[in-house]
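pasting for the record
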Amino acid sequence: MARNEDMDAAGRNRRTDAAARRAAAMPDIVAGKGASEVARLHGVSETTVRRWMLEVRGQFLDETQAAIEKIRGKLPRIVDRLLELTESADEKVALGAVNSALDRTGLIKVQRHEVDDVTQPKTMEEARAMVARIAAALGTGDEPDEEGGEDE
């Protein structure tokens, strides 16, 4: 039974009313609306909304920390399983496991570059153009002279 100080002038239980307002405000808080907007929408003070936000943040951090600890406890088994999959007879599975392992190491993927076909004979003009492209890509600024040799 509610105590007299928990009742408002209309005979409503203040605690029940506050809990209902908090529950109604949670979707707006989780959606990222500001404290002033949530306060206005739900008829409470900004201070109350900020307190609710801190409570939600604390609960979220606690739940996140618990999940991280759970994963850490299983990490040795996860790594073992991933290594087993890298040796799978199914090449797609093995490649997927290798990619997954490499993605999580923090290594970046190598960018692919176009490579000129140097196996085919080139005219002198094509060779000069290729040297100029390579020099520009390397940032050397060295370009062949008119004779075909490099400037000294």
